[in-house]
Amino acid sequence: MSAPKIKVLCIDDSALIRDLMSEIINSEPDMEVVGTAPDPLVARDLIKRTNPDVLTLDVEMPRMDGLDFLERLMRLRPMPVLMVSSLTQAGSEITLRALELGAVDFISKPQMGIRSGMLEYSSMIADKLRAAARSRPRTARRKDTPPPAPIKAPLISSEKLIIIGASTGGTEAIRTVLEPLPANSPAILITQHMPGGFTRSFAERLDRLCRITVKEAEEGERILPGHAYIAPGDTHLKLGRSGANYVARLDNGPPVNRHRPSVDVLFHSAAQQAGRNAIGVILTGMGKDGAAGLLEMRQAGAHTLAQSEASCVVYGMPREAVALGGAMEIVDIDQMAGQIVHHVAASGRAQRV
């Protein structure tokens, strides 16, 4: 007997987007649209009647905006939500807030040629819906929750580097790792699967929350302790060398594992350039990007960690890395920062002996 289809409810005030999403989703053999709604008030009744597996949700709608609805939904009836967002500076900040509130992932509406653009995204939309249907809904951290206390450790090694890769669910996972790190942490390079136009807002949001400095990586800049560098959307980030210094290298080469930026590209460069001086971390995400690269880092002498299944939104990339033998440790996300700091401190003590 065939598996039941993934039931999708689409909420968008644009009739064109509702029609296009229905066309894209209903063309897939394993999913179907069970209803569409022009706003969240209509959607509330449809959710009760259709019991969907996944919602797609617009941000700007009449009567109740998407963020207000998402916040109530995740408090009262948590379920997988895929945001449909405009690719603008304001839209990117709202989308990041939606991910903070518990949305699994997002789709960017094309700026021009909406029909052709959306149909071009059809395979990506289907993949994201499948990942969302398998995901663990996550409730948002309360606004009045105090920031995590800084982890204290004598992080004295400026040679150490922390290399992080993530995809679906990664924006909040990365925040959970970075927020408690002390200001004197080793330098961090991050690839998060994200389109152009979103990574600058993502870096700025993290910079406001963290003790370390977080920024979008720039070509040729020196990699410094106490800083985290995020791969710009649609651009590969690599670790490079200039004399005795580590530097950021940006590359617009073809996608790897269907992604640009690709985690494997970053991990491969870290294995080559940093070897045992690196700590590799693979976080939540669908697919296998980063699995081969993490194994390469381990073989080059790096210490490697993977996020645990129980704490992942989507246990795809970490599962592939563990299966391949790339992960030396499996760690819950809220223990990851402490484990990284513990390893850096232990390395520093070993160097002094």
UniProtKB/TrEMBL annotation:
Domain CheB-type methylesterase stretches: 155-347
UniProt xrefs under SMART domains: REC
CDD domains linked to this entry: CheB_Rec (cd16432), REC_CheB-like (cd17541)
Keyword list, A-Z: Chemotaxis, Cytoplasm, Hydrolase, Phosphoprotein
Region feature Disordered, mapped onto this chain: 132-151
Organism in which the protein naturally occurs: Modicisalibacter ilicicola DSM 19980
Pfam families registered for this protein in UniProt: CheB_methylest, Response_reg
GO CC annotations, alphabetized: cytoplasm
GN (gene name): cheB
Family the entry assigns: Belongs to the CheB family.
Biased composition (Basic residues): 132-141
GO MF term list: phosphorelay response regulator activity; protein-glutamate methylesterase activity; protein-glutamine glutaminase activity
Keyword flag Phosphoprotein: yes
Chain positions with 4-aspartylphosphate modification: D58
Domain Response regulatory stretches: 7-124
PANTHER family reported in the protein's UniProt record: PROTEIN-GLUTAMATE METHYLESTERASE/PROTEIN-GLUTAMINE GLUTAMINASE (PTHR42872), PROTEIN-GLUTAMATE METHYLESTERASE_PROTEIN-GLUTAMINE GLUTAMINASE (PTHR42872:SF6)
Listed name of the protein: Protein-glutamate methylesterase/protein-glutamine glutaminase
Entry comment on modification after translation: Phosphorylated by CheA. Phosphorylation of the N-terminal regulatory domain activates the methylesterase activity.
Enzyme class: hydrolase
Active site annotation, chain numbering: S167, H193, D289
Catalytic reaction annotation: L-glutaminyl-[protein] + H2O = L-glutamyl-[protein] + NH4(+); [protein]-L-glutamate 5-O-methyl ester + H2O = L-glutamyl-[protein] + methanol + H(+)
EC number(s) stated in the UniProt entry for this protein: 3.1.1.61, 3.5.1.44
Function: Involved in chemotaxis. Part of a chemotaxis signal transduction system that modulates chemotaxis in response to various stimuli. Catalyzes the demethylation of specific methylglutamate residues introduced into the chemoreceptors (methyl-accepting chemotaxis proteins or MCP) by CheR. Also mediates the irreversible deamidation of specific glutamine residues to glutamic acid.
Domain statement: Contains a C-terminal catalytic domain, and an N-terminal region which modulates catalytic activity.
Keyword Phosphoprotein: yes
